[in-house]
């Protein structure tokens, strides 16, 4: 019954904040596109502690961003798998 | 699984349409079925066959076209979004007396009912926007 | 189109201002289309989306159509589960009792429950 | 004064192109000269004559066209932005072997050099984007 | 030598904050489009005190927004005048 | 085109990420065009625009061209007044000494001076 959330905006936008307010324990959060710029700060959000955290490797590589150990890099094939493993997705943009 | 991909954004102006393309390609490569591609809002620009990026840049409109042809995908451009944005098929161009019909032959103009249908008949819907 | 089977529960999260972009209108069009096919609909206003609920909009001054008037027609299409996040309203100093249409002010936790009970969720 | 207006955004997707139109109309009404309209990035969609909004909605593409015609304005659509976005004039459509040329006859495809020229020869440049 | 700044985004975006960091005494700030939603809070910014503050009436009317007395409503004709009275403009979007 | 007279001072404020939208590339194209016509150019990175300066970008992974590589060619076009706002850099934990190209870290006050000394300012 869990949800996959994707966020593709930097901290200049309120998309991640909205997502974190409504994401619940067991949900997954995948940072894609410009969302990967928030990988290093997301673990500071209390609400992020109960989520499984991922970032799209193609997008982190493109931008020269390295990930903290709490955020798992995945590729597009694994992104598809994640989408299938969750009951639904919410794309925050 | 049967997946539907909803695209809200134009090529070039944001990365989201490219991400949707990569997601769709990867899903097909993994053996999933794409029930429908639905291009909505600025996403209808993905169906504009007149798009002519520089030769050394990735041609997303062409890539979608080839993916749709190869896998015989059902690719719908939302008719009300597309009319506003000037992406017409020959039939709509004639109806509205417009000179140019730029929509690619791989795409079909249709309404939001096709997205409601996709909700019902797909296992998952994945949205991409900016 | 394949035959529509049993209705799905669809939650729409509308997070955009009414006139600055076409997103709010595009979200409403999706809601109305789902309503025409008799789906079970939740419509949730969050963040800047609550500006759609501001009273006394007169968009004729910018040659636009009144989005709040269109929202007020939703009950005619049997769209009755309309929510606005309390935190988003109060951050914009919007009084839930003085909005253009009747909505249920709700917590983020309540929105989380709506999402969990949905087959499909759209955010725009 | 001589004013140049730079438009970065498409109709319908944001309000910015409409604001640019109102600003331009008001400047002309006040007796100012519009040295140039320059449509850049998503702004080139303002020059797509195939745009067909619903009849009860404001038709911004048509409004631009009439303003340009009435006041004989110099209206330039940036060629590299326009090619990417599939807004071609007949010459570019022929050159790139595309079927549809949807750019309105009131607009001219040209390069960013025309914006540099406008910087030099206008008293003010006003930008609109989203 | 003063500058006209326009801002067309809500507080969900960092456009106004950037503008306020670089706008200087004697500059004018005109809120347009979604920027008018910030009219009621802008006077809380210390940097805004040294600026002349305006909001585009067509956009406040459209949105049902009322202005504090510190923000002057102007129409499109006055917007054009403002643009001519300043040496240059910066459009923050 | 009318004859170009004496060069103008043009300041470009680049506030967008390199690949999330086409804005950063569109801003760079404007800079290069102005440089080709030998205008006096200031290029300022603010807010998310400083992400364009991140080292070790490999945008081939998303079929994009390397924007930071293009930026590094700017001195060849005599664009040498390149600034990044210190506050924007530090907010993103970017070290001015380890960026993809050489820029002058500067205060918002310094950017205000650049604007005041410009004939035209573009923000993208």
Describe the structure.
- The complex is a heterohexamer, with two copies of chain A (93 residues), two copies of chain B (130 residues) and two copies of chain C (124 residues).
- Chain A is 27% helix and 24% strand.
- Chain A contains three helices and five strands, in the order βαββαβαβ.
- Chain B is of the alpha/beta class and 130 residues long.
- Chain B has one domain: DsrEFH-like (Hypothetical Protein Ychn, Chain: A).
- Chain B is built from five helices and five strands; from the N terminus they run βαβαβααβαβ.
- Chain B has helices spanning 16-29, 60-71, 79-84, 90-95, 113-121, and strands at 2-7, 33-39, 75-78, 108-110, 124-128.
- Chain B has a five-stranded parallel β-sheet, with helices on both faces.
- In chain B, β2, α2 and β3 (75-78) form a beta-alpha-beta unit.
- By secondary structure, chain C is α/β, with parallel strands linked by helices.
- In chain C, β1, α1 (23-36) and β2 form a beta-alpha-beta unit.
- Chain C has helices at residues 23-36, 67-72, 86-91, 108-116; strands at 9-14, 40-45, 81-85, 104-106, 120-123.
- Chain C has one domain: DsrEFH-like (Hypothetical Protein Ychn, Chain: A), CATH 3.40.1260.10.
- The radius of gyration of chain C is 14 Å and the shape is globular.
- The chains are: A alpha/beta (93), B alpha/beta (130), C alpha/beta (124).
Looking at CATH, which topology of chain A would you report? Hypothetical Protein Ychn, Chain: A
Please state the average pLDDT score of chain C: 95
CATH level 1 name of chain C: Alpha Beta
Total count of strands of chain C: 5
Strand order of the largest sheet of chain C: 4-3-2-1-5
Layout of helices and strands:
The complex is a heterohexamer, with two copies of chain A (93 residues), two copies of chain B (130 residues) and two copies of chain C (124 residues).
Chain A: E1 3-7, H1 15-22, E2 28-31, E3 52-56, H2 57-63, E4 72-74, H3 76-85, E5 88-92
Parallel strand pairs in A: 1-2, 1-5, 2-3, 3-4
Chain B: E1 2-7, H1 16-29, E2 33-39, H2 60-71, E3 75-78, H3 79-84, H4 90-95, E4 108-110, H5 113-121, E5 124-128
Parallel strand pairs in B: 1-2, 1-5, 2-3, 3-4
Chain C: E1 9-14, H1 23-36, E2 40-45, H2 67-72, E3 81-85, H3 86-91, E4 104-106, H4 108-116, E5 120-123
Parallel strand pairs in C: 1-2, 1-5, 2-3, 3-4
């Amino acid at each position: 019954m869990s949800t996959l959330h994707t966020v593709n905006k930097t901290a200049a936008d309120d998309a991640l904040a909205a997502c974190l307010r409504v994401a619940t324990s067991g949900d997954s959060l995948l940072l894609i596109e410009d969302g990967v710029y928030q990988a290093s700060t997301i673990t500071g959000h209390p609400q992020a502690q109960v989520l499984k955290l991922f970032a799209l490797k193609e997008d982190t590589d493109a931008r020269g961003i390295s990930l903290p150990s709490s955020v798992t890099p995945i590729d597009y094939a694994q992104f598809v798998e994640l989408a299938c493993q969750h009951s639904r997705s919410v794309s925050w943009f | 699984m049967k997946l539907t991909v909803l695209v809200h954004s134009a090529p070039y102006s944001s990365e989201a349409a490219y991400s949707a393309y990569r997601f769709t390609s990867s899903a097909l490569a993994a053996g999933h079925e794409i029930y429908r591609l639905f291009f909505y809002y600025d996403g209808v620009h993905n169906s504009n066959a007149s798009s002519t990026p520089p030769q050394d840049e990735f041609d997303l409109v062409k890539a979608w076209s080839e993916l749709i042809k190869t896998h015989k995908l059902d690719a719908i451009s939302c008719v009300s979004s597309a009319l506003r944005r000037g992406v017409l098929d020959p039939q709509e161009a004639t109806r509205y007396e417009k000179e140019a019909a730029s929509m690619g032959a791989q795409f079909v103009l249709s309404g939001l009912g096709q997205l409601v249908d996709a909700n019902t008949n797909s296992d998952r819907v994945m949205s991409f926007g900016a | 189109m394949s035959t529509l089977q049993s209705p799905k529960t669809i939650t729409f999260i509308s997070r955009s201002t009414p006139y600055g972009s076409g997103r709010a209108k595009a979200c409403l069009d999706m809601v109305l289309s789902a309503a025409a096919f008799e789906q079970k609909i939740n419509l949730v206003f969050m963040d800047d989306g609550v500006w759609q609920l501001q009273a006394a909009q007169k968009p004729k001054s910018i040659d636009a159509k009144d989005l709040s008037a269109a929202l007020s027609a939703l009950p005619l299409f049997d769209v009755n589960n309309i929510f606005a996040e309390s935190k988003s309203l109060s951050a914009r100093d919007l009084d839930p009792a003085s909005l253009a249409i009747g909505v249920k002010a709700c917590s983020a936790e309540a929105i989380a429950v709506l999402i969990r009970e949905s087959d499909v969720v759209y955010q725009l």
